[in-house]
Design a protein that fits this description.
Low-confidence stretches: 79-89
CATH architecture of the largest domain: 2-Layer Sandwich
Shape: rod-shaped
CATH topology of the largest domain: Heat Shock Protein 90
Distance between the termini: 53 Å
Largest sheet: 5 strands, antiparallel
Helix content: 40-55%
CATH class of the largest domain: Alpha Beta
Strand order of the largest sheet: 1-2-5-4-3
Number of strands: 12
Strand content: 15-25%
């Protein structure tokens, strides 16, 4: 079974047109064949009338471009029942008692269509043609009748394909719109220009998008509220852990306290990331004021230099140009910090992280390149999913940094993509394009 709606429609119309054309061709062929036979019978009638009045005999002369197959034999029927003259070109052995009118007789292995007429003096004349010649002429005439139909069918197939494609084009455009929508952009589909038959389908999709939007909003509010409510107890835990440091503890106790502080620190970082994710999930920065990305990026790099130095990582700018984008400075700082922190975490000691910022036509390009192990190709498609850390997760990350970065970029209609460097295991390149202010 054909799965494509376009294929089904084209196949159905093709079967209908071809079937109709075959039936029409058959009936047109039979009609043209019968008409040609009737025309030849009419010729025999006219020749028979002339032969009856003028005592014509033998084969009529062939003049000009007259086909030999169209010639007519005229024979006098003698009293002995045989043709009188020109036996080499005659209808031999015609019975004397043949009735007047059209007859189909077989003589010497050949079939003849003859017309017998009786004159007023009692003499009789036969006018005839071989049926093989008559049928050949009729077939040629009938075939010429259906040739235009045979030429028309391929043209109809092409026309049907064009009509089907143009008719279903709104479906293709609708599918392209759905594919182009980001997972967190749930604006309803426009109904202008949509065919009437597709309006119920589009309306159903819009209602589904609205329900999903309500669910997403509830989820964002829950995450934001939960993260906000957990801030206070986490802060209290930090204070209590710091107070424990002042107490006299054994080495084992201090090791356990260090583990506790590390867990509290990871939990606090996770809460901050959740709050940031909830903020940019709501697309709150769509109408943000202009931000000086170059100034924000320099501050972030300066803040991360101590962490890079502790791992002996060379963190610096490969290319740096002043650039401004329509995104608030806080969002720019979160974007840059998450990408750089991710690069530092996955770059081994003694590695290198290069940062570039420059203008490119009507966008600002921000790239981060590291010398880590890169990302497995199987993880590239999922790396922006919340809480997905990949199969090579390292450090204390929460799996939200890249997801937050993508939300921030998409909130201002930018783009972000990750790609491994050409040499296997030579590092990862993050490329961000933001609309230029």
């Amino acid at each position: 079974m054909i799965a494509s709606l376009r294929g089904r429609l084209f196949a159905g119309l093709t079967l209908f047109v071809v079937g109709t054309a075959l039936a029409a061709g058959y009936f047109a062929y039979r009609w043209a064949f019968d008409e040609a036979i009737e025309l030849q019978d009419a010729i025999l009638l006219q020749v028979g009338s002339l032969a009856t009045r003028n005592h014509l005999s033998t084969r009529l002369p062939s003049e000009g471009n007259i086909d030999g197959e169209a010639q007519v034999l005229i024979e006098e029927i003698g009293s002995d029942g045989n043709a009188a003259a020109n036996r080499g070109n005659s209808i031999s052995s015609l019975p004397r008692d043949l009735p007047d009118g059209f007859q189909t007789v077989t003589r010497d292995g050949a079939r003849w269509r003859i017309l017998v007429r009786t004159r007023s003096d009692g003499s009789r004349v036969a006018v005839g043609q071989p049926t093989a010649n008559r049928d050949e002429v009729a077939q040629d005439s009938a075939l010429r009748t259906i040739v235009p139909l045979g030429v028309l069918i391929p043209c109809l197939m092409v026309l049907i394909a064009i009509v089907v494609d143009r008719t279903l084009r709104p479906l293709s455009r609708l599918a392209e719109r759905l594919d182009a929508k980001q997972s967190d952009h749930l604006e309803t589909l426009p109904t202008e220009g949509i065919p009437t038959e597709l309006l119920p389908f589009v309306s159903s999709i819009n209602r589904l998008l609205q329900r999903i939007g309500v669910m997403f909003d509830a989820q964002r509010r829950f995450v934001a509220d939960a993260a906000h409510e957990l801030r206070t107890p986490i802060t209290a835990l930090v204070v209590q852990a710091e107070n424990l440091e002042q107490a006299r503890l054994s080495q084992d106790g201090r090791d356990r306290l260090a583990s506790l502080k590390s867990g509290i620190r990871r939990t606090g970082h996770l809460l901050e990331q959740l709050l940031t994710l909830a903020r940019y999930d709501s697309d709150a920065s769509k109408n943000s004021p202009q931000g000086a990305f170059d100034r924000v990026l320099k501050e972030v790099v300066v803040d991360l230099l101590p962490a890079a130095q502790r791992k002996s990582i060379d963190l610096g700018f490969a290319r740096f140009e002043p650039a401004s984008v329509r995104l608030e400075p806080v969002a720019l700082a979160v974007l840059a910090r998450n990408l750089l922190d991710n690069a530092l975490r996955h770059t081994p000691a003694g590695g290198q992280v290069d940062v570039s910022l420059f203008s490119e036509s009507d966008t600002v390009a921000f790239t981060v390149e590291d010398t880590g192990a890169g990302i497995p190709e199987a993880d590239i498609e999922r790396i922006f999913e919340p809480f997905f850390r990949g199969s090579r997760a390292r450090g204390e990350g929460s799996g939200l940094g890249l997801s937050i970065a993508r939300r921030i970029v998409e909130s201002c209609r930018g783009s972000i993509r990750l790609e491994n460097k050409p040499m296997p295991g030579s590092g990862l390149r993050v490329i961000v394009h933001l609309p230029r202010h």
